[in-house]
Amino acid sequence: MTSPASIANAPSYAALSYTWGDPFDTYNIKVNDQAVTIRSNLWSFLQHARPDIDAPGRVFPADQALIELDRDLRIRDPLHDTLGYFWVDAICIDQNNIEERNAQVPRMKDIYETAAKVIVWLGYEYDNSNIAMDAIEEFGKAAWFFDCNRDMMPDFRESVTPRVASALQSLAHRPWWERAWVAQEISTPSRHEIPASVWCGHRRIPWHYFGYAEWAFNQTFSETDFDMFFTQLHSTRTVFLTQLKQQRENLKDSTHSTALPLELSNLLSELRSSVATDDKDKVYAILALAPDGHHSDLRPDYSEAVSVGDAYKQVATYIIQRDFNLDIIGDCFQRNYKCPSWTPDWSVRFAPLPFPKLCLRSDGTLSAVYQASGDVTPKIIISQQQGTLIVQGIEIDEISEVSQSNVVEESSLVPVDQKPMLLSWSHFLFPNAKDSTYIAGGLMAEAVGHVLCADLSGTYYKFIERGTSARALAMNLLNRKNLPRHLAASGDIGTVVHNIIGQRCLIRTKKGYIGLASLMVKPEDKVCVLIGSQVPIVLRPSPAGWNVVSEAYVHGIMDGEALKIGTPVMTDFLLV
Fold it and tell me: Domain named Heterokaryon incompatibility: which ranges (predicted)?
């Protein structure tokens, strides 16, 4: 039985965050005597939430059915008296009705904010998930109780046996963690006091224990344990979701935030590795997260009249015109859909993390990270109809050599040994004279130290200062000894280098510049400084104009030097 209501007057309900699962493994339920097909993962949740459900013939009886709220359906939950209903997207939104999807998706933020709580459903119990949930609760509760005071924390080292570690790895690789909509659902500030909870089988623990457990894991296990305890659970994904939730709480409460602001362009980069059933959701799922994502030009459109490439171009155009700079084209990499080369294809999951464009300094102020094009006012002309972008810039040099690429594929339970790649880079960087000077001044080894970390310090989510060098690693490359197997386990600067070089390669130009660019670059590509871009851009000539290939860190031209040497020749570039 169903009955209508408005969101403003909605009864207490919980919003469900889950993955749809296999489209061919389905069950039938009845809603007001109408057949509705749901997938097995949702059915599994209903069984755990409603243990009294009987499923003869895989049919959900109508008299145990749903309450409707503007087509937002909620399921009665007798196990939680304070939460009378659930909101479930697969049932509440007619996925086959394009107009309804277009109308409902912008309301998702309000739906999750209005919910009394958010429930994360990781799936039924398997692969010792109960053991993993117990470990997370134990670690998380202790870290929460001792307020992340390392000196007061108990030693959990003996608690994490190989069996526990295996269970944690399995739980961390469940599909929910990679789902595009998760960032919005779990980070939404609730208007109520009930914390989000994570369900896995019959185990239920508060969401914030995951963030605290991540901290405890990192404090407990040193880099020598990296091989044994390599897991996504304490990777950047969990850290990012936890920080994102806190930042949105800060925005809601109008309190001061010590993290980088939630900008649409940053979130698109951070969440690029997520998975979506419809690739348009790689951008639509993020719009509500950023204050700058609420604009009439960015309304979701799931109709066939708007292709995925069109949706991406719409977002890129909006960001370029609003910010009047070219920073967003640094996201350009490989592409699955037809769109201009200056438009990032966010459906490509494993792309290089763009060089950061906003720096949080030690005094709490924000500033641009790089200034390759100085403070010159850009010229930017976009033709929506033709899909072209006209910009001004300077052609600096031509790429002469490209090193072996540091390819990062889909996350594995076992980290890749990076020593062979680093040894290859050593031969690329130092083929002959060890103490050769660099074209922009100083020794080659000094330039290499800056290139490897893109001249940055701090963690990837909170860069502190420019002018940093991975000097020790550069010297090890120079001498070809003590090369680490796993950069991410070799200290703070190793983590920065690990994040920076993913999906990138080293480049050398004809004049002798060295730098980092994406693995898409080739010899004869042009290194250019485009006015309005903080970093150099690698372009490739085409019959119709120029294709954007990659952004680059090129040591010696990152702070406006190209505009100060001689009389620079400014050229119009037609990007297609």
Answer: 13-185
